[in-house]
Amino acid sequence: MIYLDNAATTAVKPEVLEAMMPYFMENYSNPNSVYSFAQESHKVVDDARDTIAELLHAKGNEIYFTGGGSESDNWALKAAADAFSSKGKHIITSKIEHHAILHTCEFLEKHGFEVTYLDVDANGLVSPESLKTAIRPDTILVSIMFANNEIGTIEPIKELGAIAHEAGALFHTDAVQAFAHVPIDVQDMNIDMLSASGHKFHGPKGVGFLYLSNKVKIGSFVHGGAQERGRRAGTTNVPGVVGMAKAAKLAHENMEENIKKQIAVRNHLIDRISQEIPYAKLNGDPEKRLPNNVNFCFRFVEGESVLIMLDQKGICASSGSACTSGSLDPSHVLLAIGLPHEIAHGSIRMTISEETTMEDADYTVDSMKAIIDRLRSMSPLYEDFVKENK
Amino acid sequence: MIYLDNAATTAVKPEVLEAMMPYFMENYSNPNSVYSFAQESHKVVDDARDTIAELLHAKGNEIYFTGGGSESDNWALKAAADAFSSKGKHIITSKIEHHAILHTCEFLEKHGFEVTYLDVDANGLVSPESLKTAIRPDTILVSIMFANNEIGTIEPIKELGAIAHEAGALFHTDAVQAFAHVPIDVQDMNIDMLSASGHKFHGPKGVGFLYLSNKVKIGSFVHGGAQERGRRAGTTNVPGVVGMAKAAKLAHENMEENIKKQIAVRNHLIDRISQEIPYAKLNGDPEKRLPNNVNFCFRFVEGESVLIMLDQKGICASSGSACTSGSLDPSHVLLAIGLPHEIAHGSIRMTISEETTMEDADYTVDSMKAIIDRLRSMSPLYEDFVKENK
Amino acid sequence: MYSEKVMDHFSNPRNVGEIENPSGVGTVGNAKCGDIMRMYLDIDEDTKIINECKFKTFGCGAAVATSSMATELVKGKTIYEALEVTNKAVMDALDGLPAVKVHCSLLAEEAIHAALWDYAEKHHIEIPGLKKPKNDIGDEEEEA
Amino acid sequence: MYSEKVMDHFSNPRNVGEIENPSGVGTVGNAKCGDIMRMYLDIDEDTKIINECKFKTFGCGAAVATSSMATELVKGKTIYEALEVTNKAVMDALDGLPAVKVHCSLLAEEAIHAALWDYAEKHHIEIPGLKKPKNDIGDEEEEA
Ligand SMILES: Cc1ncc(COP(=O)(O)O)c(C=O)c1O
Ligand SMILES: Cc1ncc(COP(=O)(O)O)c(C=O)c1O
User: Fold this and answer.
1) Strand intervals (E) in B17-154
2) What is the pLDDT of residue B390?
3) Ligand 2 mean position to A307 CA, how many Å?
């Protein structure tokens, strides 16, 4: 099997699972308990917090563990809106955010907030100018994703954050696809809040974190017990946070090398597909792009049938975001970068990992060529196109 | 080590961990993906849902996986309040709920809702009469815990639910301490929504569920992707839900037997302590009580010092709720059942599991006797008491 | 997610292709909603039996499989009998479809109807029970 | 959560007990907030040196340990020097306390002051810098 859906989720690394194992059956203690049995779990949770903080150039007490990226996004947006509603009710985000941001914004709109959804250019970039134009005295929050989950475009976070701060607004970034994939420095990059999710970087599912700068005073999202310094209730998922921190650490230890390796494979895929498959268009920015992301639209064919045929060749890929499968509308991201519906329907995302080899890439392109050929021969759109251009 | 803090958290059972293992490194797929690699994870998640539903006499599509008990509580209360605010803004709960309910209610009070906190009697029971008196035409939601986490009292859920329904209000129960410990039938017991948490019954931490009757139309709490039929966003924690379902199943397979076994050990602890340690008072109802819960107040001594000394004898116990440690106030539950502050401070909770033996119980009582003696000899309150009663 | 029959008809679709000078041809669906089906019919002038049926489809696995199954089901039937090939018949023949994919079978039914309508119009006959299909590719421009 | 020194002074508290006919005795804290400390002092009439210091404490591990350490620190000091045994001195001697437990060390300081105050009142002397301690057990009734 060639797994090219690492943006949907990743395999837990052996070292990560190993780090988690002692905390299921052996030291299963609740880290907040008084007895000495709980000392170790307390310590490893603290260590996990410090590990992650260091990687972001943050402080340990600025990292709050959550149940995943979606929860972190919901928390950041809803609690910030709640905390600053007396100052203003305007929020700015982009049209290509993940649904965890967009649907949260819709919820906030129903509760009296006004949300501006910034357009992006054909490569999926949010322009700092458009933010400058949209920002207002009553803008309390700007939330722009660090990197897009479908087309891999990396946004100019540092500049966007600076603009938000100049206007006195908080700056949040959904870094679920970026953290542990590219270097992030929350201080240098003007980030007040940052969301991440363990399973996107070979950590476990069901655990994530929110970086919350100590300067930001917002309330809780999950109310209850005093865990996470009173800001996120719920018995700490000890194996989860230990695994996530381990995965983050591993990713950063080899980050430079991994990025290089992945970019080579990624570019090989992009180059061969561009050259060998006609009417294929790369989506997302060719340069400002996640090292692991390849996304093409293949005209005249529909994504799902491509996916099934790839699957029959042992290749796992996706068409748009995994969580939108089941929906009939093509991805909002592809529409936002200006693709017509019928072209957007033919999008295929291949997200590699450091394990993906050049051979995997070649096999994938060879398979893809045959599949696209076959499906086009069955496509009424292709038939019409050929007739029109005869 | 004798672990008597199973209400704080439990050890994952070997069979549970075994059931989870394939979904970390081998079949790590996102269950919503199209490719066949995801079929198994999709199926095991569906199976987990059906397993849990069956145990509650619910339908599979009424079980929604969450990140834990606190999230389930927050979801039920906040989304119900949001959905029915046009019908009314009054909510009823009790004074002895977990903070995941109480702090959520405080949040709702800040957002325009009115909350009535029902008193309980000296055993911690909510009386159906008090609910009848408190309920109003604008009451939209009643939330009463199935069993209390500190004193183990089991509430008359079926009657309370019936009263809520008669008045046209929704009925939620926080069953975090009760699910997989005592039999629950949501249909028979008039339950519309029920919260549970995996790690309280030998499942993993960081995963829980909300039972939401198909009759209840409320929105999401975590907004985003279309997971959990569009009602709870976030990539499914496959090992987590598989482990939780396995743990629930195991608990129900042996439930009758386990309850008997635990009640025998529990009652042995209660009887010996009552008889052998003077000025010790059992908290909670002696009959309507969780099979695993023992909670005593020992006059003239303070809980934490008892805990440390128990720890020195290899016994893990707690004083009040684990998550309130660090707070200076004695448990709100003990105050609600009418204990004066200085007595509430001397509470010790011992929560057993099916693994706890009679020998463990005897060792615990023997240790406790010596510890209480020692601490009383150091206590100025005991000195005064003795002088006064000379 | 798909039944074995669906997978079989997707992987080895029957009757893919075009018919030169077809008796009737119909295209339904639109690229906006994601699926387009085109059906070609070769109909015996006298017996009104469908000798040949071919399709081309742009769409998901279910769209391809329902097209394929629909062509199998109408082949050999008269144009009057072909009306009985409903979306339910197609689904049943495929051992069912996921709920979100039921619309594909409706499209297959519509595609047959559209091809039959084209035939009926060209030959100035009326097929009892056949209504002019609505969802055709032309809608796309109107809606967009 | 506690340092080794704290654990040592909790497990083997020094100077637990009562003094018959003490020169001064003070009780501070209240059961509502959770900790009560009582200090007994035996003071040399002439030298004003604290010969003996005993305590009884109702409270958490930190409360017991700070009481124990406080008695150790004041023993052998004059009543004037004893004022220098601040909560910080007690904490430092214990290698620190968790943030939520700092109030225990304040209570220990107050307990010494209360016992000294009792001595000073009984003997009609004034100890420069010593103020009447506020938080004593009597507050409980007033507050409740
Ligand atoms: C009654 C009750 N409700 C809710 C919770 C919260 O569960 P969790 O910590 O798993 O979120 C707990 C556990 O502490 C509990 O005992
Ligand atoms: C950009 C982005 N944000 C948020 C999420 C949500 O993360 P999770 O599914 O772990 O809650 C995802 C993953 O699907 C994502 O790609």
Assistant:
1) 63-66, 90-94, 114-118, 139-143
2) 79
3) 21
Residue that the structure tokens 């009657």 belong to: B159
Interchain CB contact of B377 with D (< 8 Å)? yes
Q: Which of B28, B239, B304 sits opposite A34 (nearest CB)?
A: B304
For A153-179, how does the pLDDT look when each residue is reduced to its tens digit (9 = 90+)?
Answer: 999 999 999 999 999 999 999 999 999
Residue D104 known to be catalytic: yes
Cut 0.80: pTM above it: yes
The pair of three-digit structure tokens given for residue B69, joined into one six-digit string: 């008990």
Which residue carries 């960081």 as its tokens?
B206
Average pLDDT over residues B218-223: 97
Distance CA B131, CA B253 (A): 35
The rounded Å distance from CA B184 to ligand 1 centre is 17
Number of the ligand 2 atom closest to the C-alpha atom of A7: 16
The residue-averaged pLDDT of D66-91 equals 95
- Contact partners, residue C139, CB within 8 Å, separation at least 6: C30
d(CA C118, CA C133): 10
Q: Do B28 and A10 touch (CB under 8 A)?
A: yes
Q: Which residues of chain D lie closer than 8 angstroms to A34, CB-CB?
A: 1
Q: Do chains C and D touch (3 or more CB pairs under 8 A)?
A: no
Query: How many residues make up chain A in this entry?
Result: 390
- Residues D16-45: tens digit of each pLDDT: 999 999 999 999 986 666 789 999 999 999
B288 exposure class (CB count in 10 Å sphere: 0-12, 13-18, 19+): middle
What is the structure's pLDDT at A330? 78
Who's near B157: CB < 8 A, 6+ residues apart? Answer: B144, B146, B173, B189, B190, B191
- ipTM beyond 0.95? no
Note whether B379 contacts D: Cβ–Cβ < 8 A.
Answer: yes
Q: HEC string of A186-237?
A: CCCCCCCEEEEEHHHHCCCCCCEEEEECCCCCCCCCCCCCCHHHHCCCCCCC
Distance CA B330, CA B332 (A): 6
Write down the domain spans for chain C.
Answer: 4-129
B34 touches C: beta carbon within 8 Å: yes
Min Cα separation C52/chain B (Å): 33
Say what the alpha-carbon torsion angle A342, A343, A346, A351 is, to the nearest 10 degrees. -140
Say which of A37, A73, A207 has its CB closest to residue B316: A37
Q: Which CATH architecture has domain C4-129?
A: Alpha-Beta Complex (3.90)
CB neighbour burial string for B150-175, b if at least 16 within 10 angstroms, e if fewer: bbbbbbbbebbbbbbeebebbbbbbb
